[in-house]
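Hello again, I could really use a second opinion on something today. My current little project is about how a certain protein chain folds up. You're getting the sequence in one-letter code plus the fold written as tokens. Here's the protein in full, and shout if anything looks odd to you:
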Amino acid sequence: MYKTLATLTAGAALMAGAAFAGPNIVSGPGVNPECFAPWTDETNFMQWEAREGPFRVAVVNGFVGNTWRIQMIKTAKAFAEDPSIAGKISDFKVVSTGTDAPAQLGAIEDFINQGYDAIITIAVSPDGFDRVIRLADRNDVVLVPFDNVLDTDKVMQVNEDQLAMGRMFSEFVLGELDAKGVSSGKILEVRGLPGNSVDRDRSIGINEVFAADDGDWEMVSVNGMWDDGTTQKVVADAIAVHGEFAAVVAQGGSNGMVQAIQDSGHPWVPVSGESENGYRKALSEHSDAGLKGISIGQSPGLVAIAMKAAVSALEGNVMPQLISVPLPVATYDELEDGKNFWSDLPDNFFTVNEFPPCDVNISGPAIMAEDESDS
């Protein structure tokens, strides 16, 4: 019944002379700018026709082989049950399709054809989505990529500034090296999932800062897939092959990075990493011995902001095309047990899940109570 009604509605729109439904480009400001902040002053604003809830919402994940993705799925499920939004969602589904782009595109198309109102996705690739974007517009479905976003301005997207994160990673370790009087040496860069915009943009930021520095740096790059086990192996292998590094700049898999450094007997050096609880524990414990690091959180909780943005768009609110979520940063000298890391939570728990301007605060126990299976 729902699919038939959606088809008739789309047909009526076409008869009225509109090639597509989808959003209109409108003037800002948008709704709740403290939460849904536009990326820049040049960001466009979008508005979909308001409709009656509750809504059918799906999350189409790709890769699920690391702890960040697992926690993201658990967070999505926990947020869908949160009283602040549960009454606005009538049907909630989560699927993970792996790293194959056609499989992800097929899953998105299937949810569109089933009549879902909004689809949240972490894109396997930053391009190749033109067909599903057009299909979403024809069916007036709100498609919201987040984290690994698309190279397009045709959909509403939610992200943190990955280029800025990469720059901050490098700027921190360079500052620590300068304080030690170190101006040359090998730098180990631990990259993430190949083909993703997050990995690409962070790496660009990391390398451009070192390239612009006056020091004599040799960059060595390995791929850790943002996964602790993979990162531990590739960092250990890099140390075995290349010897001592002046610093390690890791996009993720930060627990594995620290473990590899410790197991190899490599001296503690300045490091960068994500917001894993174990990584922050290690910085707190070993900073006096030389493990001075920065932790910047690409929170799995971004999925909650994307879900909240999708529902807001379905309600007819004016929304930025690209929503900027501030980078949550903590350095080794700012860490406090019970505040920005937790000694009683698992090492692979990502610590940043509070977004006060968005009234999103998903507790660790609520997240950990969920599972990562498709639903």
